[in-house]
Amino acid sequence: DAGVIQSPRHEVTEMGQEVTLRCKPISGHNSLFWYRQTMMRGLELLIYFNNNVPIDDSGMPEDRFSAKMPNASFSTLKIQPSEPRDSAVYFCASSPWDPNQPQHFGDGTRLSIL
Amino acid sequence: GDSVTQMEGPVTLSEEAFLTINCTYTATGYPSLFWYVQYPGEGLQLLLKATKADDKGSNKGFEATYRKETTSFHLEKGSVQVSDSAVYFCALSEGDGNNRKLIWGLGTSLAVNP
């Protein structure tokens, strides 16, 4: 079975540009999570969805960040405008709607804002 | 709120040494507990889990027992290999109803030398 698919794997862009990260969750998983990982802050939960509905976006750092899940098989995380401090690895994860089941992570998008 | 505390790293061991990575938690209710592993350049992947008190999760020679009386879920391996070098994360499931997510420890980096 295909795992969580993220694109692009790497993104380098200049500050001020719009960045869009994409995620395809595992088919049949109800929940989708966006994380950011940096050396300074570790792993941070940005936002998560259940059945395509955003449940908790309290981890989104500022209004420059937005996330959508238009259907069960696709989600985007957008940063506009981007800043150098947004440089990080961004992970998408999905899971069934069962607290005993683990989250499955994609390989991440390594984002560098120059 | 719920929280997870892991021992700080980095942990450096020689091959075939015994490994313990401590993890304690605070939680209301009875969460499921997880250990995830992150190899360099990859996303996190589930290593093992336990869903109720006294359960022992095991995988690839790693073990952890859900100890409710000490609120702990320490990760152990009897004989580590160079290939075990990675970052290990302890996590617990939190929430109910429509609001469920994982609470993460900060991660413990393990380096195993030949």
Task: Summarize this entry quickly.
Chain A is mainly beta and 114 residues long. Chain A has no helices and 11 strands. In chain A, the strands form 2 sheets. In chain A, strands 2, 4, 5, 6, 9, 10 and 11 form a 7-stranded mixed beta sheet that branches.
Describe the protein in words.
The complex is a heterodimer of chains A (114) and B (114). Chain A is mainly β and 114 residues long. Helices cover 0% and strands 54% of the residues of chain A. In chain A, strands 2, 4, 5, 6, 9, 10 and 11 form a seven-stranded mixed sheet that branches. A four-stranded antiparallel sheet of chain A has the order 1-3-8-7, with no helix packed on it. The model of chain A has no long low-confidence stretch (mean pLDDT 94). Chain B is an all-beta fold. Chain B is 0% helix and 54% strand. Chain B is built from no helices and twelve strands. In chain B, strands 2, 5, 6, 10, 11 and 12 form a six-stranded mixed sheet that branches. In chain B, strands 3-9-8-7 form a four-stranded antiparallel sheet, with no helix packed on it. The chains are: A mainly beta (114), B mainly beta (114). At the A-B interface, strand 5 and strand 10 of A face strand 6, strand 10 and strand 11 of B.
Q: Uncertain segments of chain A of ≥5 residues (pLDDT<50)?
A: none
Mean pLDDT of chain B: 93
Number of strands of chain B: 12
Biggest sheet of chain A, open or closed, and with what strands and sense?
7 strands, mixed
Write down the overall geometry of chain A: globular
Structural class of the secondary elements of chain B?
mainly beta
Number of helices of chain B: 0
Distance between the termini of chain A: 36 Å
Give the uncertain stretches of chain B in residue-range form. none
Hey, roughly how much beta strand do the residues of chain A contain?
A: over 45%
Termini separation of chain B (Å)?
A: 41 Å
* Estimated share of beta-strand residues of chain B: over 45%
Oligomer: heterodimer
Shape of chain B: globular
**Treating each run of at least 4 consecutive H or I residues as one helix, how many helices of chain A?**
0
Number of strand segments of chain A: 11
* Largest β-sheet summary of chain B: 6 strands, mixed
Q: On the 0-100 scale, what is the average pLDDT of chain A?
A: 94
Q: Helical residue percent of chain A?
A: under 10%
Helix amount of chain B: under 10%
Computed Rg of chain A: 13 Å
